[in-house]
């Protein structure tokens, strides 16, 4: 799906004519007759209605009907009143509306459905894909934002929201874009995190209803639904929720190489309890190895991807489920983040009642192997966000340590092969941003950290869907839906953690629908052995990328430093994550059209 949103302005006609034919397959006009929504989408991915001079379109997976949407629209008089449609509609979608010529456009809180804007022909144009804006004007890279993608995890907020393209703005978190008839635009905040005050016995049924509706939003648009069945609590729960719907279910899972892997036995047991579904199992002979194609040059040009190691595997999933009639495929991403009980959770509980949470502090300290000094940092009040951000600029090249995980976010760190120029660019950008006094996504560090991770997952889904759409498949993450996120954040903090239990709120919500052997799991398998084996098998490709590195040619990494990391007999685990980010950035640079190039900072 690709579309642009235009204001009710005379220049909108000119902008539409600049778009290639494949992006102009659908055109919906303002009441004035000028183009409003132009793009390429399938009929089952959009619900569009009109009430007098007002129009609204939901593009994506929306749990509603034309009749329901029309009834809601008929009560709307201003773009602000469209909030009631969001409150009553489950799913993940873009909302685009024209109310008396005033336009409101927005994506999802997670960023899985994102919106970007750029000036074109004297007006502000919005789009769900940067590549659509690139059809309308020339874009140039911003080098300081490009090198941000070398940081472990992601750039710190709000730098994580900035586009690598100089001419493009990302819609700020929790805002909608208001496009005015004079061609100007402004972001307007529409959502704030709820207070965490709902007890679990009240929150659990609400969480269940939100998840059921989220799954129903996908089933309503596709008679055959795909879903991961890893054996973990998240994706496996979605399988059982989907099985309750009136649809055909196709599941897929990948067997891990680790002989201690416990996910596979749980997945096999769950598959047996879902006899009406078709189950696909990938093993070492049928699954693409990790780093199967790190040197590819066909990635979408929107932004550097968050990973490259499993890109081929994601395409395998999309290809295989598409062959069985699947157009929407469920994945469990986001659940871990909503249930997070890390250092920011310890801080939140300690700030409320330190004596009452000593058992939690002791358990977390033992599990994470914190020193006494780190533990004290975790329970004390965190510094103001801008101050914390500025401090991070002095520690970009510090070796990873447990201390770096305590704070508003994991401290941003560059890999040891980052050049002095890259380090200077990142440090200066962080300091300039800190000097503006940025506010966190929530005044509560634990909510800020959850939302940061939710946004990170949203970016992952945008990338994986650029791979899946080649097979006419949409990857879907119900745990990232706005209503699911809002409900999860409203749960009382003390109820989010129960000693010896894993994700107690999710377990309480789905008890009776999902088998106890899934909900009562306390273990979690990992992909480490698969990652190492894939790295070893494709090390030649990685070394070739090092020797031909675009990042090195641009002066952002030290080729010799990266060469040393790739030449080691046994890779250091601390380098695996940063290596993934660097290689993903390399593959993305290879994929840029020749006419697109960097611009000096």
Shape: globular
The overall pLDDT, averaged over residues, is 93
Count of distinct structural domains: 3
Structural class: alpha/beta
Order of strands, widest sheet = 2-3-1-9-8-11
Task: Give structural notes.
The structure is a single chain. This protein has 601 residues and is α/β, with parallel strands linked by helices. It folds into three domains: 2-141 and 161-189, Aminohydrolase, N-terminal nucleophile (Ntn) domain (Glutamine Phosphoribosylpyrophosphate, subunit 1, domain 1), CATH 3.60.20.10; 200-338 and 448-519, HUPs (Rossmann fold, 3-Layer(aba) Sandwich), CATH 3.40.50; 538-592, no CATH class. The protein contains 24 helices and 19 strands. The strands form four sheets. A six-stranded antiparallel beta sheet has the order 2-3-1-9-8-11. A hairpin with a 2-residue loop joins strand 6 (90-99) and strand 7. Helix 6 runs antiparallel to helix 17 (482-489), helix 14 packs antiparallel against helix 15 and helix 21 packs antiparallel against helix 23 (559-567). The chain is globular and about 65 Å long. The model has no long low-confidence stretch (mean pLDDT 93).
């Amino acid at each position: 799906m690709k579309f642009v949103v235009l204001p009710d302005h005379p220049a909108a006609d000119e902008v539409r004519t600049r778009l290639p034919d494949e992006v102009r397959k659908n055109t919906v006009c303002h009441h004035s007759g000028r183009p409003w929504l132009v793009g390429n989408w399938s009929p089952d991915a959009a619900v569009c209605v009109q009430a007098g001079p007002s129009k609204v379109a939901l593009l994506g997976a929306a749990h509603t009907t034309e009749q329901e949407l029309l009834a809601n629209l008929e009560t709307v008089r201003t773009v602000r009143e469209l909030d009631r449609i969001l409150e009553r509609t489950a799913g993940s979608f873009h909302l685009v509306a024209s109310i008396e010529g005033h336009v409101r456009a927005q994506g999802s809180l997670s960023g899985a459905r994102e919106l970007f804007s750029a000036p074109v022909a004297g007006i502000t144009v919005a789009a769900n894909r940067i590549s659509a804006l690139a059809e309308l004007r020339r874009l140039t890279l911003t080098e300081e934002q490009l090198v941000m993608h070398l940081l472990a995890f992601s750039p710190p907020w709000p730098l994580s929201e900035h586009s690598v393209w100089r001419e493009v703005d990302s819609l700020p978190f929790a805002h909608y874009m208001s496009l005015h008839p004079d061609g100007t635009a402004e972001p307007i905040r529409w959502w704030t995190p709820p207070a965490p005050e709902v007890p679990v016995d009240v929150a659990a049924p609400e969480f269940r209803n939100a998840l059921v509706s989220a799954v129903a939003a996908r089933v309503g648009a596709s008679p055959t639904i795909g879903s991961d069945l890893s054996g973990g609590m998240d994706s496996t729960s979605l399988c059982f929720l989907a099985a309750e719907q009136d649809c055909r279910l196709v599941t897929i899972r990948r067997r891990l190489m680790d002989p201690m892997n416990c996910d596979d036995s749980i997945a096999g047991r769950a598959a047996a309890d879902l006899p009406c579904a078709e189950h696909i199992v990938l093993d070492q002979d049928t699954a693409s190895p990790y780093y199967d194609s790190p040197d590819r040059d066909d990635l979408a040009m929107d932004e550097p991807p968050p990973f490259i190691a499993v890109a081929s595997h994601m395409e395998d999933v999309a290809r295989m489920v598409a062959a069985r009639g699947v157009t929407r495929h469920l994945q469990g991403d986001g659940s871990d983040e909503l249930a997070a009980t890390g250092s920011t959770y310890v801080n939140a509980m300690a700030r409320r009642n330190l004596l009452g949470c000593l058992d939690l502090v002791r358990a977390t300290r033992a599990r994470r192997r914190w020193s006494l000094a780190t533990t004290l940092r975790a329970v004390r009040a965190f510094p103001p966000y801008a101050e914390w951000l500025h401090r991070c600029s002095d520690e970009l090249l510090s070796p990873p340590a447990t201390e770096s995980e305590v704070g508003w976010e994991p401290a941003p760190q560059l890999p040891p092969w980052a050049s002095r120029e890259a380090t200077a660019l990142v440090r200066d950008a962080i300091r300039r941003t800190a000097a503006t006094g940025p506010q966190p996504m929530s005044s509560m560090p634990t909510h800020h950290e959850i939302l940061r991770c939710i946004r990170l997952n949203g970016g992952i889904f945008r990338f994986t869907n650029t791979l899946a759409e080649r097979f006419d498949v949409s990857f879907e993450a119900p745990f990232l839906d706005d209503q699911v996120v809002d409900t999860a954040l409203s749960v009382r903090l003390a109820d989010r953690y129960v000693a010896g239990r894993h994700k107690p709120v999710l377990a309480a919500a789905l008890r009776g629908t999902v088998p106890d052997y899934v909900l009562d799991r306390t273990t979690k398998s990992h992909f480490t052995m698969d990652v190492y084996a894939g790295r070893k098998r494709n090390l030649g490709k990685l070394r070739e990328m090092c020797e031909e590195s675009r990042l090195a040619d641009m002066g952002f990494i030290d080729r010799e430093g990266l060469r040393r990391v790739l030449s080691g007999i046994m890779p250091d685990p601390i380098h695996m994550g940063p290596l993934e980010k660097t290689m993903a950035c390399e593959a993305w640079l290879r994929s840029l059209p020749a006419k697109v190039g960097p611009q000096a900072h």
